[in-house]
Amino acid sequence: MSIPEETFDVVVIGGGPVGENAADRASRTGLSVALVESELVGGECSYWACMPSKVLLRAGAVRALAKETPGLRDPGAPDAAAVFARRDEITSNWDDSGQVSWVESAGLTLVRGHGRLAGERLVEVTLRAGTGSEAQGGAESGLGEAETGEAPAKRLLRARHAVIAATGSVPVLPGTPGLAEAAPWSSREATAADTVPESLVVVGGGVVGVEMANAYADLGARVTLLSRGGLLSSAEPFAGEMVAESLAALGVDVRTGAEVASVERPGIGAEDGGPGPVTVTLADGGTITAAEILVATGRVPRTADLGIESVGLDESGLGRGGALVVDESLQVTGVPGGWLYACGDVTGRAPTTHQGKYQGRIVGDVVAARYGTEAGDRSPTSGDPEPAVGQEGKPWSRYAATADHSARVQVVFTRPQVSWVGPTEREARAAGIPVEAVSYDLAWVAGASVESPGYKGRAQVLVDTQRRVLVGATFVGPDAGEMLHAATIAVVGEVPLDRLWHAVPAYPTVSEVWLRFLESYGL
Ligand SMILES: Cc1cc2nc3c(=O)[nH]c(=O)nc-3n(C[C@H](O)[C@H](O)[C@H](O)COP(=O)(O)OP(=O)(O)OC[C@H]3O[C@@H](n4cnc5c(N)ncnc54)[C@H](O)[C@@H]3O)c2cc1C
Ligand SMILES: NC(=O)c1ccc[n+]([C@@H]2O[C@H](COP(=O)([O-])OP(=O)(O)OC[C@H]3O[C@@H](n4cnc5c(N)ncnc54)[C@H](O)[C@@H]3O)[C@@H](O)[C@H]2O)c1
């Protein structure tokens, strides 16, 4: 029996933070928007990533601050049960009804199920059991759920104008012998755990690896961190070195240049008492045995079951790790008709929540503007010239994700925190930008000595010596995440150094480092 089609102006596949933003932005202009979500509205970030991981790090950070502050005492090791309870609150116990209420209030139609492209502007949704009659909002539905009485297994959503893929990413499990059989934790288990393993071996020295090593060491686990290179290889080298030093001071056994050769976990699947300890053998023959293992070796865009073949794309048309390749207006390249868009982790461009949400805002505006070219100006953001389908938006206009390249920001919530905007020095030089790095020890700034007598931190800006503007900056230290935005504004605004000279940092704040940067550069 054929399934009747339901028509919307826009269909968004994936209700993570990015899909939510794209859907909301398009819908604000009056377009009807369906949002398809197969798990929890709010996505990875709300339930198994950003939010729970930051809560797991918070108690340890506050303890460290108390320990370093004269006049206070060590409050003692965090109460892990209380930390997990707070984590449960922040994830709403993995219940998305709060976010569903927001979706409803934004006028979006939520369709719970797995969405797959099924041809031009067509999305087939395999419904999640028990959610068949959850059509909400004001779409023109051809489906009479009330009449059928029973939840249909599938729904067909026809997009009058555009489909936006915001399906996120999935973790990578290396093919190391014995690793899959050892049933390792991914970031999901690490962020959703409710007990602290006595010992934990973490494979991968990227962002998840260092944050979770820090969190579990704070919570009392004996942690070994294995990285085949240094730590945080996408940041400036001094950042990874400072984080390694501080993790080691916390008791983490940090092993850089460590290649995992094989993994063994006898007794896995046994009925009595869960899996036993896991033994990791390194390429140099050394072994580590721990109660639990976390694999944090990166994520790839989630395109494996998206039906891309139905719209004329095959694997050769995908980018690194299977990413949907997009132009600057976030239109997927290689799909005739220009109706398919993508944003967030699935594009592989800048896999963080904030950059993805930025893309979501842009794609929502692009879709609305292109709809508007036929049916009058429905753009909420008129002012910039609207790009026609197949044209890229003007750089730095509302219709181009320009910051993805030149002003990407990231914060790593370890102790010390690491934050950066723009390219690293190496990336800038590789891109042919004539940069001079100006580096400063944050402990030398008066504000730092007020914060703590043992304050440790370093900051660096990259000056484009030809244009005399900043193109990048890195901060490592307490609250480095909060120090970043001034640098982001300087980079995005391409503020001339001679004008920055007049941005006077207050005394005694750590932001006085901005004055030191300029003085060191010769102003
Ligand atoms: C441990 C960890 C910590 C992190 N911490 C931070 C942080 O502090 N700050 C930060 O900025 N970033 C952080 N990130 C990265 C951040 O989580 C991602 O960049 C962000 O979640 C991407 O959002 P998204 O909407 O693109 O994808 P997701 O959040 O993955 O959402 C995609 C959604 O689409 C749904 N979906 C997928 N396929 C389909 C389909 N075919 N049909 C229907 N629905 C589908 C999924 O169920 C999911 O809900 C962290 C990541 C991890 C793993
Ligand atoms: N605070 C934040 O913004 C935050 C926090 C956590 C995660 N995230 C995002 O989540 C994504 C995933 O994080 P991640 O840490 O898993 O990825 P990552 O790419 O940051 O790091 C992966 C690490 O694993 C190593 N690796 C890869 N393959 C390996 C193998 N076979 N054996 C051993 N090591 C291997 C890499 O060299 C790298 O050091 C990233 O895009 C990150 O930006 C962001």
UniProtKB/TrEMBL annotation:
Keywords tagged on the record: FAD, Flavoprotein, NAD, Oxidoreductase
Q: Which cofactor does it need?
A: FAD
MF annotations from Gene Ontology: oxidoreductase activity
Q: Where is this region: Disordered?
A: 374-393
Task: Name the Enzyme Commission number(s) assigned to this protein.
Answer: 1.-.-.-
Give yes or no: UniProt keyword Magnesium.
no
- Domain (Pyridine nucleotide-disulphide oxidoreductase dimerisation): give its ranges: 410-514
- Signal peptide positions on this chain: none
Per the record, a Pfam family? Pyr_redox_dim
Q: Indicate the segments forming the FAD/NAD(P)-binding domain, all copies.
A: 8-359
Family of this protein: Belongs to the class-I pyridine nucleotide-disulfide oxidoreductase family.
Stated name of the protein: Dihydrolipoyl dehydrogenase family protein
- Which species is this record about? Promicromonospora alba
